[in-house]
Amino acid sequence: MQHLKKLPGVGTRSAERMAFQLVRWPAEELKGLADLLSCVPESLKSCKECGAFLEEDTCPFCVDERKQQQVLCVVANVEDVYAIESTREYLGLYHVLGNLISPLDGIEFQPHCFDGLKKRIQSLGIREVILAIDSTVEGDATSLYLKREIGFEGLKISRLAFGLPMGSRLEYVDGGTLARAFLGRGKF
């Protein structure tokens, strides 16, 4: 249970339920899970181009012929790529930063991440960069830094819209989200 509680979103009760469920599994299923988990470090690699996880030698996100080769979505973490892919709305390339700027925590932008991003933009002839980064202090600092550093002639830089969640009622929305929704309102 202590190991399961280390997973994000898993508290004491959830870890307890998972542990008791695993105890009920047949031995061969438990061994299969253990084998799978033990080979994760060797079987998962990062794509040298975009930074997403690979199980094979070619990146499914970089070589997909349906992808728009002149649009690049910049995300903070690998899991953001999979979240965006699950929507089936975005058909461009990705670039994973790996971390966000956090001056209060002493985390500065990693120069190798920035250099790789800038080289990809230029070598691929990217026309639009979409910053799909969380709306947090760290996310905003990173987005502003990137906008300043990669904003060159002819490159469109956009950021995902902020605002009201689908199905929400205004009375339950916090003031910051509501303010962002007003600032980012679109023509109807």
Question: How would you describe this structure to a colleague?
Answer:
It is a single chain. The protein is α/β, with parallel strands linked by helices and 188 residues long. The protein folds into two domains: 40 residues, no CATH class; 98 residues, 3-Layer(aba) Sandwich (Dna Topoisomerase Vi A Subunit, Chain: A, domain 2), CATH 3.40.1360. The protein has seven helices and six strands, in the order αααβββαβαβαβα. The strands form two sheets. The chain has a four-stranded parallel β-sheet. Strands 1-2 form a two-stranded antiparallel sheet. Strand 3, helix 4 and strand 4 form a beta-alpha-beta unit. The longest helix has 14 residues. The protein is globular and about 60 Å long.
How is the secondary structure organized here?
Elements: H1 12-24, H2 27-38, H3 40-43, E1 45-46, E2 53-54, E3 68-75, H4 78-87, E4 92-96, H5 111-124, E5 128-132, H6 137-150, E6 156-159, H7 175-183
What would you call the structural class?
alpha/beta
What distance separates the N and C termini? 51 Å
Q: How many β-strand stretches?
A: 6
- What is the CATH topology assignment of the largest domain? Dna Topoisomerase Vi A Subunit, Chain: A, domain 2
In the predicted model, the low-confidence regions spanning at least 5 consecutive residues are: none
Rg from Cα: 20 Å
Order of helices and strands: HHHEEEHEHEHEH
Shape: globular
- Please bin the fraction of helical residues: 40-55%
The description of the largest β-sheet is: 4 strands, parallel
Quickly count the helices.
7
Question: Percent of residues in beta strands?
Answer: 5-15%
